[in-house]
Design brief:
7-stranded mixed beta sheet; 186 residues; 33% helix
Length: 186
């Protein structure tokens, strides 16, 4: 599978309406601690961003995009935060910067994220935006502005394309076992 392309070889593009947030959006705002007693992705999605916008999960349409300022996902290291974002229908997050642990967790669970200060500064709430995963091009369809995020290296794109690290490893082990003629990997 080529980086930035799905199983059928098509470029991975995300297109949606922007929900805009500011700086230092922490994981307690993304998914409040009172919901951490579940790991059910659908239940987490119902409460996504509830700490800052109680109606957020009800307003999202599949494919919408979050744009935020600096240090998005700061706070605790819970994987629940990127899971809640992905499962409520958000296709990707664009921010000036991400907290280090959120950045890693997003990759691990297959939530596409893009660091681009210029896009985060200029894209407004309600704008329609298209993002090309493989090139890092971010096109604000409302204002006709284009921004460029640094695309992930090919191996990270492959992890994201697989839906996260666990799926990537599962697929790789199965592929390697099949190449050796083994029915089971272990």
């Amino acid at each position: 599978m080529k980086a930035g392309k799905n199983e059928r070889g098509h470029e991975m593009k995300y297109k949606g309406t922007v929900f805009r947030f500011g700086d230092n959006i922490d994981t307690d705002v993304i998914i409040p601690a009172r919901y951490l007693n579940t790991s059910d992705p659908e239940e987490l999605a119902k409460h996504c961003m509830e700490g800052i916008d109680p109606g957020f999960a009800d307003e999202i349409k599949q494919g919408d995009i979050i744009v935020a300022g600096t240090n998005f996902g700061c706070g605790s290291s819970r994987e629940h935060a990127p899971v809640a974002i992905r499962e409520c229908g958000i296709s990707c997050v664009i921010a000036s910067s991400f907290a280090r642990i959120f950045y890693r967790n997003a990759i691990n669970i297959g939530l596409p994220i893009f660091e681009c200060e210029e896009a985060a500064r200029n894209i407004k709430h309600g704008d329609d935006v298209e993002v090309n995963f493989s090139s890092g091009a971010i096109h604000d369809l409302t204002t006709n502005q284009t921004f460029r995020a640094q695309p992930f290296p090919e191996f990270i794109q492959e992890i994201m394309n697989a839906g996260g690290l666990t799926n990537f490893i599962r697929n790789t082990v199965a592929k390697n076992a099949a190449e050796r003629g083994q029915e089971h990997a272990f």
